[in-house]
Amino acid sequence: xxxIGPLTLDSPLLLAPIAGHCDLPFRILxxxxxxxxxxxxxxxxxxxxxxxSPRTLELAETNEHDTPCGMQLYGNSDDPLPEAxxxxxxxxxxxxxxxxxCPVDKVAKKHGGSLLLRDCASTQRLTERxxxxxxxxxxxxxxxxxxxRLGWDREHFVAPTLARDLASIxxxxxxxxxxxxxxxxxxxxxxxxxxxxxxxxxxxxxxxNGDVTEPHHVTEMMAKTGCAGVxxxxxxxxxxxxxxxxxxxxxxxxxPDTSRLxxxxxxxxxxxxxxxxxxxxxxxxxERHALHTMRSRIAWYSKTMGPIKPLKxxxxxxxxxxxxxxxxxxxxxxxxxxxxxxxxx
Length: 345
What we know:
Elements: E1 2-4, E2 7-9, E3 13-15, H1 24-33, E4 38-40, E5 44-45, H2 46-51, H3 54-60, E6 69-74, H4 81-90, E7 95-100, H5 105-108, H6 120-138, E8 144-151, H7 159-168, E9 174-180, H8 191-200, E10 206-209, H9 215-225, E11 229-232, H10 235-238, H11 242-252, H12 266-283, H13 287-301, H14 309-317, H15 321-335
Parallel strand pairs: 3-4, 3-11, 4-6, 5-6, 6-7, 7-8, 8-9, 9-10, 10-11
Antiparallel strand pairs: 1-2
Helix pairs in contact: 1-12, 4-6, 7-8, 9-11, 12-13, 12-15
């Protein structure tokens, strides 16, 4: 379990707000695999939230199958972040996260994200306004957290001091991605630096993030850094069952028997893709959007599925969701023994 202010999570594993990927169908899919303590929406522009733009409303969509749900907001001191946080609470958010780590130019150079690491004093004042607004609006029921990088570059390692200062004004957990803004996603995450942030902040949990793609990475990060939880991002795109495996490993303790870890078969993976298609059919804004999403996701899923080129091609060329469903169903039948494996093209 992981305690973030008044919010108790059943697992210390969190699904990151992965820009362009973390929609409602995918969040539900990951939760159904098991092990997810909290899943967050895609990052949400504070002004777009209050204007209720259709795309932002879609990104913020949540329901009873997606709880507890965090909503991550981005913006700067000139943006209505406190008001957007109150909107998010009214629309199902159980946790408000402030994005202080996005390195993408359209965010970091104009609207916030890692830009907030450049002027820590201003960031603290903005954060205090958000914390006060959320505390009042929710009756202290909803925690505010922050997700940051180590700093803009190696010459500005601000994360330990900023995290400690944010904790003093009411932030109730800090997530640290172990890279500098200028790295984007290149190189390796510096887990040692994450450990320095953990050492600097004793009053709230620090959650580690970066280069977690295998279940043993979770336990290694926790042991190396002392972090209270782990946020998983891109690693979940190819293995949504990673949370389940990692939680099993945590529960095994110091002498884990990795042979007992959940090991999904090809049949299971095909059934999971079929479930993802079902969720897209239920929740995607349009069939066109659902088709685009699965064409992208099959490239990720196939990384763990061996030689499935005919299935990838069938998904890539399908012109309807039903065609995709039919293609996956054929593989499910084959893997379950209904069609001889020798007949596979």
